[in-house]
Amino acid sequence: MKQTVYNFSAGPATLPHSVLEQAQNELLDYKGNGVSVMEISHRGAIFMDILHRAEQSLRDLLNIPNNYKVLFLQGGASTQFSMLMLNLTRGFDTVDAVISGNWSQIAAAQMGKLLPTKIHIAASNESQHFLSVPPISNWQPSHNAAFLHFASNETVHGLQYHILPSQVAEAPLISDMSSDILSREINVADFGVIYAGAQKNIGPAGATIVIIREDLLDRAHADIPDVWCYKSHSAKDGMYNTPATYSIYMAGLVFDWIKQQGGVTAMQKINAKKADLLYQTIDQSSGFYKNNIDVASRSQMNVIFHTASPKLDELFVKEASKSNLKTLKGYKLLGGMRASIYNAMPLQGVETLCQFMHEFARKNS
Ligand SMILES: *Cc1c(COP(=O)(O)O)cnc(C)c1O
Questions:
Q1: What is the pTM for the complete model shown?
Q2: Catalytic one of 69, 96, 180, 200
């Protein structure tokens, strides 16, 4: 019997075992067509069916209203930083940005390169070293901004907005949900745009999901090339150019899997249980493990922690890996450890990690 390996990678991240098995079964011969999904035309009936079913499943899972378009683009979440600017700032001179950690900070910096639009920092917790998210009640949006951008979950710093904003600004809210989309219930109608790279909580890298309110498609600068234009992609039913076909197929399988688990509501419950277990293990370790994030801002997806020294952290990561608990090394900026426990990480994986943490603390205190 192969030993069960639990992979805590922040992204590309672990996928549901049953989804990988189904993909394996269908790899050489997709549903009796004699060819792989990777080898078929993106405009043919077979792939169009895969795409339409994936979109419908996502709509079902997130209750996406009819006046929102769903696009499966490429280029990762990073490409969206500039697509948002090109597509949504015509007639505006300012964009509001909330800085809550590494990713929202990068987003604001990159958005700011597309002159002449100014970036107004509506809130930032950088001076407090990103140990909590800037409270929504402290956000100071400007008047007449094209949109307000924030990240619902900070993958590197291990922070998350447990309660999402609604109606905080006149401008549409845009959220980078790359690392927590589909992990909990959201009200899509509160947002102008939601976007996410697939490789954390959806599927393999390559597909980037953009959920956009229809009326915002008309805010694009007139002179942008079609490949950067949401409206062009939308007008061609997602087939302006070749999409990431295999990634979309895999995303569709993951959406079906989430449905089988009971949908986003069920995922939210189990995700809370997993995160509680892990934070409890940290908090009840008599100081052996530490997570300094304000409790109300702790991410349920990316749990960061460290021991008393970088040397001991290194030993932890090494021994954990030997025990089939993989990719626990923290992000290079922060050191320590990071356990990413997205939807596809089973409760048993977190339980096994907690057991290992108890043992390791006992042996090394
Ligand atoms: C990973 C990540 C990104 C960057 O995604 P790419 O697909 O690599 O461009 C952006 N934002 C958040 C919140 C992320 O977790």
A1: 0.97
A2: 200
Q: Is 326 a catalytic residue?
A: no
Q: Is the CB of 178 under 6 A from ligand 1?
A: yes
Residues ≥6 apart with Cβ < 8 Å to 235: none
Could you tell me if the CB of 96 is within 6 A of ligand 1? no
pLDDT value at residue 238? 83
Torsions phi, psi for 283 (to 5 deg):
-70, -25
**CA 320 – CA 362 distance, rounded (Å):** 14
Measure 358 CA to ligand 1 centroid, in angstroms.
32
Provide the angle, in degrees to the nearest 10, between the axes of the packed helices 347-364 and 263-283. Answer: 0
pLDDT at 212: 98
| 200 flagged as catalytic | yes
* Mutational pocket test of ligand 1: of 176, 202, 208, the residue with most ligand atoms within 8 Å of the beta carbon: 176
In single-letter form, the type of residue at position 224 comes to I
Per-residue confidence (pLDDT) for residue 1, from 0 to 100? 54
Percentage of the chain lying above the pLDDT 90 cut: 95
Identify the pLDDT of residue 333.
Answer: 84
For residues 303 and 298, give the distance between their C-alpha atoms in angstroms, rounded to a whole number. Answer: 8
Average pLDDT over residues 84-108: 97
Q: Measured from the CB, is residue 200 less than 6 Å from ligand 1?
A: yes
What CA–CA distances, in Å, run from 239 to 41, 43, 51, 76? Answer: 11, 7, 10, 17
How big is the CA angle at 233 (ends 231 and 236), to the nearest 5 degrees?
Answer: 105
Find all residues with CB under 8 Å of 36, minimum gap 6, and list them: 26, 27, 28, 29, 30
